[in-house]
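My main concern about presentation is that the manuscript never shows what a single data entry looks like. An entry of this sort, consisting of the sequence and the corresponding C-alpha cells, reads as follows:
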Amino acid sequence: MDFFQNVVVEYLRANRATFVNTEYCIQVNPGTNPDKSGPHWYCDAVAVNIAQKRCSLCEVSYSKTLTALGKRLTQWRNHWPEICAALRRDSGFGQDWLIEPHVFIPSELGPTLDRHLDRLPKIAGHDPQMPKPKVTFLESVLPWKYRSWDRASEKVA
C-alpha cells in the first residue's frame, strides 16, 4: 500500500459509521481465482458507511497525469452494473445502498481530472448507471485538518 493511501484510510476511518477494507478485490464473476474468472480490480480502499448505506470505491492518486486513474474509471464505467452486482453478492449490500467511485487527488490536479472526465462524457455524470466520482483533495485529509475521533464537523456530501 502506498504511504498516502494510509493517510486516506485513517481519514475515512475517523468517521465512526465508516468501515474500510483496503486492497479490496472487485471480482465480477465468482470463482476461486480472480485471475481466471474474468474482469477484476484491486481497489485501494472500499469505505462502507453503514449510517448512510453508502459504499465508496476509493482510489488515491497523485500522478501528475492521472492517466491510470482515468483508465480505472473508464473500466469501472464500462462494467458498472456488474461491479455493483459483485459488491452486493460478495459484501452483502442491499439494493438500497449507494455504490459510488470516490477519488482522492491533490487539489492542483483538479483541472486535470476535469479534463479526463470531460473526455469521457459518460463519467462526467451523464451515465445513469455509474455516479459521477466524488472528489476529495488530499490536502483536506491531512490529520490536522479534521477531528480524528469522529469528523462530525464535516459537511456530509
